[in-house]
Amino acid sequence: MIEDIAKNLHEVLDTLPEGVRLVAVSKFHPEEYIEAAYQEGQRIFGESHEQEIARKVEALPKDIEWHFIGHLQTNKVKYIAPYISMIDAVDSLKLLKEIDKQAAKHNRTIECLLELHIAEEETKYGLTLDACRQLLESGEWRQLKHVHIAGLMMMASNVDDKEQIASEFDTAWKFFDEVKAKYFADDPGFKERSWGMSHDYQIAVEHGSTMVRVGTKIFGPRVY
Q1: What's CA 117's distance to the chain center, in Å?
Q2: N or C: which end of the chain has fewer CB within 10 A?
Q3: Residue 221 pLDDT level (bands cut at 50, 70, 90)
Q4: From the centroid of its chain, how far is CA 220?
């Protein structure tokens, strides 16, 4: 499998337009897989379990940019606050405040993406568009000095209907433009539209994505 990683990685990278970054989803994959992708120049990796990521941070090169991509519980924030570069799925003001509190202890600012719930599946986490508007309208996030809201993230419905998937991405893109104009017009750092995974990232880049999360297509089936 190791010898396939370089080929798989470049196959994905070759399909990404300029300005679209790849988060290589490395959760449940061994360190040597990450090392193989790192040797090919990949620097952003996505993890979703605090114990696994802590082990990997210790073992792997220090210039890796680690993203926490799963649903994050507030009581787990303190474990990842010393080193995480971006938390990709913030779905409440409470979580945002906890990230700010823990980042302050390490004198760091942590980049965050607000997660939207647009897909029709109940299993997905995230803020509805109205809940996201309310969070931003309240203005409390402006007082937080150790988090920076860098954009939005969402997952499309896990269906074969490409038109539905594209429509959900377009909904997120339109909403991004709305909140960018209303709340972040003066913040060039609010720029990420993070959608698209192994099965739909090519649709995502056609519909506004600036950051895709691809794992299986690079690393193969997960090693549990």
Answers
A1: 14
A2: C
A3: confident
A4: 20
